[in-house]
Design brief:
about 200 residues; alpha+beta; two-stranded antiparallel sheet; 7 helices; about 10% strand
Length: about 200
């Protein structure tokens, strides 16, 4: 996937957010904000068919930035450093495994009992052609957006319990089940949908 630029810390920003494959473990809030700004800038000059892709990517990067910042501040997991101009910035984001451990530790201290962090509850494996179909339908209907955002390069999709409920709500918001999906993909997605507790 083509890179459209880099953040000031040297992170490559790919043309389509999902093709990062969720590999943002060392991205900071600042990296995500810079990537969102780059996508917005490209959207202004790119061909019309690519504009929504860049606008979606900008929105997802901003969502990631907000998620990291809110979680870090809420749980006190990220220390803050003050620069020369008095501006604060967050340190690097922990890996997902480390973040799970840190969240469990903070929650157990607050409640006095051992609490497990949210874990992945639902998994789906997509083929390369299914990934292309999802990318094609993304932005046109609600059902492919979360799949695209959570899919890794090898086609693995993992949802937590709350993400699964959000995705099924997205599916229900479309006029028909899985529009633009080929029958085999629609059947596969319906089975995944039916796994919801």
């Amino acid at each position: 996937m083509k890179a459209i630029g880099n953040t000031s810390s040297g992170k490559s920003v790919l043309a389509a957010y999902p093709f990062h494959g969720g590999k943002f473990s060392d991205w900071t809030v600042k990296d995500h904000h810079e990537a969102a700004a780059l996508h917005r800038k490209i959207a202004q000059t790119d061909i019309p068919t690519n504009r929504s892709m860049h606008q979606d990517a900008a929105r997802w990067h901003e969502d990631d930035a907000r998620r990291i910042q809110a979680l870090a501040e809420k749980l006190g997991l990220v220390s803050r450093a003050v620069g020369n101009k008095g501006r604060q910035h967050a340190t690097r984001r922990a890996s997902s495994r480390q973040l799970d451990r840190d969240i469990s530790e903070v929650l157990s201290k607050k409640s006095g009992a051992r609490v497990h962090a949210t874990r992945i509850a639902y998994r789906l494996k997509l083929t390369p052609s299914e990934l292309r179909a999802i990318e094609f339908a993304r932005g046109r209907y609600a059902w492919p957006d979360m799949l695209s955002a959570h899919a890794t390069e090898d086609g693995s999709v993992a949802f937590s319990e709350s993400e699964m409920w959000q995705w099924t709500d997205d599916v229900d918001s479309d006029d028909a089940p899985f529009p633009l999906a080929a029958p085999a993909l629609a059947a596969k997605l319906q089975r995944f949908y039916d796994e919801r507790v």
